[in-house]
Structures are given as structure tokens and as C-alpha cells.
Specification:
With about 375 residues, the protein is α/β, with parallel strands linked by helices. The chain has helices spanning about 60-70, 85-95, 120, 135-145, 160-165, 175-180, 185-200, 215-225, 235-240, 260-275, 290, 310-320, 325-330, 335-340, and strands spanning about 5-10, 15-20, 35-40, 40-45, 70-75, 100-105, 125-130, 155, 170, 180-185, 205-210, 230-235, 280, 350-355, 375-380.
Amino acid sequence: MGGYQVRTIDAVTSCDTWEVDLPHTATPASDSPYLVLGNCLIDMYSSSGEPGYESRETIDTMARSALGGGFARVGILPNTDPPTDNCTSAQFWRQLGNPFLPWGAITRGLKGEEMTDLAELAEVVVGFGDGQPIDNLALVRRVLEYVQPFGKPVLLFAQNRPLRAKGVMHEGKWSALYGMEGIPAVAETAQLAALLELVRYTQTPTHFMRISTGRSIQLIAQAKADDLPVTASVTWMHLCFSDRDLSSYSPHLKLNPPLASDADRHALITGIKTGVIDAIAIDHTPYTYEEKMVAFESAPSGCIGLEFALPVLWQELVETGLLSALELWRALSVGPARCLGIDLPNTKIWFDPHAVHTPSASLSRNSPFYGKPLRGKVLHTSLLPGP
């Protein structure tokens, strides 16, 4: 093992240092010039198949995907069957323990109509969020006022569904060229502006998920400049692709919100560098082959990513110089932990940026990277006890 350099990235202390012959248990690929030793990763929100949709993903396969990708904690959205909208369903996840952190639904049955028993859920969930848009702004206001004593984050998805209408991709040059109905950027920004006004009014700490446009970055930046208690995240796929990449009509690239323009993608990356975007989320969303492999317009939105995110982001952002290694690591570890209001677990991962491998732990295959060799591999995760 002698002669290998180890790049130690500590996102807590903002240190990126090099050492030689550091003792470790991971074995690098024979041609790898160095390994990375970094903090464990945290995913703010993803979807599980189980319970209810075990043909998409089981708890076991999702846990193995998380471990294989370096994630010590994964926030679980409440869109299971039954949904996590009561204490009994939330306890299901709490009994499983790490790496799962359940989000409690804001509305019963995720229908956006009636509040759940938020006080009861507060005892066992990491925060509150439906994981989908809530159209009723009066209801959102009541929720923001009601949850204040609980000290739990609220997760909101800013999207105006009437403005989204029947669109399937970002509205613009490429939607016209590809002959698909577009979703205007204002479907996100108009709703985001309204929700930010509710946060301004209630002063309730709120996290905005799945930010996808440059204008949204400006709105979040202004809100932070005004000292509003807001944080924001972008999904990893929106950092890797844009609407022009839909020329293949691959259903694996159908996401909600849709992939936006190249300019929007670079604005999101800049948002991470400047701290306007606090976290990168994986938003792992499994589907069966039969569900996903249909015409683009008919396919459900979402893709898997727990195993793929770190290797792909390292190649797409760090190797290209768009982000530093520390900036990427901070957005995948400390940033998500702070948004969730949890301590970063005392867990380290060994990552070989040069090893080539083909991830296969997930039960689902709905990813443009599934079955393809990836450059970059998590070699070892030290699962130490932690909060």
C-alpha cells in the first residue's frame, strides 16, 4: 500500500489536505494515483418502493445502494403505500433505524387538502413534507404557523401545477425542436415567490427542494439576503444534464421539475459555489422497467441515483473544474445535515476517483447510468455509531 497519496476532505472544517501512506482499509485500483478520505454523505430526500411498491425497490436494496454510494443517512419521502402520514407509518421507519430518516407528510394521503397530525408526527420524523406541490397556499400558511414549536424543517416543492399543465419538458428552444409540450420556468418561480412571501410572513424555517432555474436562484439569494430562514437544494441530475440532452427521448431523463437550460444548469452550479444552494439531493426515485420504459411523454418522472451520484458528480464537476472537491463534498454532507437539523455522523468513506466499476445494488434500473461502467467508486464506508 506504500506510496499511495490520500486526499483527506473534511467538509466540517473546510480542509482539503494531502497525506502519504495514511493507514487505511480500502484497496485502491492498481492504476489509481490517490484515494479520497471524506465525510459520509447525507441525502435529504429520496423515495422508497417498500412498503407498497416492493417491485420497484426494497428496503434492503435501497440500503445497499446507499451504502455503496457512501450515504450514511437517507431522508425518505412519505410517498409509500401506506404513506407516512401518521405515527404508525412513521414508526415503521424509525424501527428500521439508520440509514433511514422518514419525512412526515404534511397532508393526509398526500392529497394537499387536510393537515396530518403534525404534533404526533413530530416525535418520530426528521421533518414535514409531501414531496410534491401543495396548491392551497392558505393551507401552507397554516402549516408554517402550526409547526413552529416543533423545531423541525418544512420541505416544500415550488411548482404551480396549472402553469405546468400537460408539459413534459422545459419550455424553450429544445422543446420546440423536439416537438414536446413545454413547462414554463415561471411554473416554478411564480410558486416559489408566493411561498417565500409566506415564509417572510410566518418566519418559519423552510427548505425548498428541487430548485431548477436560474431565476429561482435569484429569488432564494434575495430571501437569504433579507435574512429569511430558508435553505434550498438541487437534485444531482439537474447538475449533470440540461434540456438539450433530451434528443434521445430517453424516459430516464424525464424528471420533475424538468431538466432546464444550459444557462440554468450553470446557475445552479454557481449557486452551490456561492452557498445560495445549501445541498445536493439525490431524489432517488425507483420504478420498474415496465413503468419507465414507455414513450417519454407517458413515462413517470424520476430516476435512481444513490450509487451513481458521487462518481458522476466528481467527473462532471470536480474533474472539469466547475466545483472544487471541497465544494462538492460540502454540498453532499455538511450542507444536507444542516438543512435537516442533524449532526453529521462520525462516519468516513473511502472513494477512488479513478476506479472503474458498474453499480448494480438497486432493484430498479431507471437511470441513464445503469449497466454502464462508471469512473469513481466508493471502496469502503466505516459505519460508526452516530446520531
